[in-house]
Amino acid sequence: MTLLIQLLVNGLITGVIYSLLAVSFGTVYRSTRVFHIALGAIYTASAYGIYVGKNAGLAIGVFTGLGVAIVLSLLIEWCIYRPFLKRGSSLGVVLIASLGAYILIENLIALLFGNEVKIIHTGIEPSISVGAFILTRIQIIQFFIGILFLIGSVVAFKKSRFLKAAWAMGDEPLLLEVLGLPVFRLRETIFCFSAILCATASMLVAFDVGIDPHVGLSAILLGAVAVLVGGMDNILGWIFAAFLLAELQSLAIWQFSARWNDAISFALLIFVLLFRPTGLFTKEARIEER
Amino acid sequence: MNYILHLLIMIGIYLILAYSLNLVLGFGGLLSLCHAAFYGIGAYTYTLISMHFHLPFVLCIAASVLITGFIAFLVGIPGLKFRGDPFVLVTLGFQVIIFSILYNWVSLTKGPYGISGIPRPEIFGLKINSLFSYLGLVWISFIIIGIFFYFIYNSPFGLALKALREDERAAESLGKSAYHYFLYAFAISGAIAAIPGALYATYVTYIDPTSFTVDESIFQIAILLVGGSGNFLGPALGTVFMVLLPEALRFLGIPDTIAPNVRQMIYGLILIVLMYFRPQGIVGEFKVR
Predict the structure, then answer these.
(1) Cβ of A94 and B275 within 8 Å?
(2) What domains can you pick out in chain A, each with its CATH number?
(3) What is the pLDDT of residues A101-151, one digit of tens each?
(4) Closest C-alpha to B139, from B15, B277, B288, B284
(5) In chain B, how many domains are there?
């Protein structure tokens, strides 16, 4: 029983990380309709950013990680997505190009730093036992920083007119230009926003378990699964779905083993999409909106 | 010389894979990311059947084709309800699930340890164990399958798939059910992928799940995207290019330690550039949507 409680608590903390990834992937996917696989490369790059930068102090490491993520994200938007947008390419084409960018950057990182796991934080983490379960310090940090960023982004999307316009861009990209809104600036903002969330998640994870060049894709796919399970139009739905995924994986560890984690998250995706193709938490859309 | 024979055998195996995937990707217009899973299921079913029941080679292949085709059919039933991004993600999901099963069902597949000592095939009393005879086997299989696909591509079935790819609603209004046509195409394509799986297993005489990962699926899609899909020439061109590219790099004198990464980087770059300038591949008919 204590094991179950411990695993559920761990699931809650993993859920925070997954939520960050889901919001990071979802904002780009919802407002630009780009299936942003290259976000996986940003995830990896920012962890290597903190790995390199932390030699000069933790704060500098964190800023390096964030900086790398933002610069890379903007570069991908400028050099890849924007030319495709101007050319009027279809979304499938952009998806493949994004995959290409991911493969390119992933292997560039592997070339520079080697394929093996890099540990960022060495030594035993101090831990606190709270009733029936034990938390390590890094888990507590993950939880609170993650929650802070999640609340921040939800509030930002509800309050900021600029981000609301970005959200609307996903529905009617052409209408925004007609309304005189700066489409490219909106896109840049969205890509920065998503890079920051992604880098936060990545650095929090890297600080705990280290980093290798090939983790990005599976991390981003978890975010993508959460977005589709939660439903495209509902940011709280993504977060809820991310927690659902994390808890399901914890239950799977309890019953079977951690090796089934990926299979379970995709099984959930297929199952949910079959019965609710629009995701779990979407309101019924009017016919003319579909 | 052996090196060239080995390359020709690998090209033969990948040609069969490319032509089978072409039916779904090029003709159906469906970006399926689980072809490597069917390739893997083919390899494993062939290996298990041949090692447990000691049946003749042709029978083992036939059995693995049937089983793989049936699994592809089962995967297609839910999978083909989706189009676009959800379809990509769902097929990716099946790829991950099938890989996990191959990896974790240790009592059947020996999981990460892999199965070694797979016997070389014997056809009508002829033992295939030299590279030359293997080359013959692979290419004869390819020619038979190539002719099969040539007729499928040009049959009313292939043309209906093309029509559905171009405009699903219009084709359905002419009485072509997208779901059924795509499902049959998906099952046929999966079933045929079992043959290169079996050929690969007997050629290398060792299989483990890491040969059938998501990356392998991406590689097979890249073959079609580079060469082009939706016709007969594209897959051939893509296969030759993608299989020979790493070998060309080897002759450029890139050290072995960084060669795999450099190769992957070139694949990534090719995908980006190609998608920008020629989304239908070098000689293809189908543009990714």
Answers:
(1) yes
(2) 2-121+129-282 (1.10.3470)
(3) 999 999 999 999 988 888 887 777 788 887 778 888 888 999 999 999 999
(4) B15
(5) 1
Alpha carbons B46 and B194: distance in angstroms, whole number? 8
Whole-angstrom Cα distance, residue A53 to residue B178? 54
ipTM for the predicted complex comes to 0.92
> Nearest CA to A201 among A5, A4, A22, A11?
A22
Q: Name every chain B residue with its beta carbon within 8 A of the beta carbon of A262.
A: 96, 100
CB B34 within 8 A of CB B91: yes
- A232-266 pLDDT tens trace: 888 999 999 999 999 999 998 888 887 888 899 99
Q: Give the amino acid at B157.
A: F
Structure tokens at B11: 């090209």
- Residue B71: give the domain boundaries: 2-213
* Distance of alpha carbon A219 from alpha carbon A239, whole angstroms: 15
- The nearest CA of chain B is from the CA of A31 a distance in Å of 15
User: Token pair of A6, please?
Assistant: 């411990």
Nearest to A228 by CA among A25, A8, A16: A25
Shortest distance between the Cα of A156 and any Cα of chain B, in A, equals 27
Cβ atoms of B21 and B222 closer than 8 Å? no
